[in-house]
């Protein structure tokens, strides 16, 4: 996600954060976290975000997928 899209997403109501991972061959996963489905829908309908998606389809991506999931529980481990 571009710096502009990161900045724009962070300004959206319900935005909770983002993580992005890329392999050496350029394949990647970006996970954005949102408060609820309404916040996701509002982000999807943001005109600047829609323009960036269209540009991505034309210039950068041969394919991509979007999945929406609810996190019911989570935990982590950090070695001291």
Automatic annotation (TrEMBL):
Domain ABM: residue ranges: 1-68
Keyword terms: Monooxygenase, Oxidoreductase
Gene Ontology MF terms in the entry: monooxygenase activity
Pfam families, per the entry: ABM
Positions of transmembrane segments: none
PANTHER family according to UniProt: ABM DOMAIN-CONTAINING PROTEIN (PTHR37811:SF2), BLL5343 PROTEIN (PTHR37811)
Stated name of the protein: Antibiotic biosynthesis monooxygenase
Provenance organism: Gimesia maris
